Amino acid sequence: MVKTILLKIKTLIKVRLEVANFYYYPDVAVTCDERDLSSNEDFILYPCLIIEILSPSTASFDRGGKFANYQTATSLQEYQDLRKDTIYSVFSVFA
Q: Does position 81 have pLDDT exceeding 60, yes or no?
């Protein structure tokens, strides 16, 4: 059986984290949530995937406080941080 999934994939869009009371601009944010898909807001409230491209100047913050805040999003299923100077990535999958 083939299942169709609607996605909204955006770059340069904010992710709103209600519990942490923060907005961030991840490098890539994906949502499958109907509330985001039908919304005209300039942010995603229910991300299922967030990807951050790390640089030496942002890696500490991206892996520290920002990552901790991302974990407050109950819809988040996967977070990836990719180092732009290597060919591997670190995956954090949430159950």
A: yes
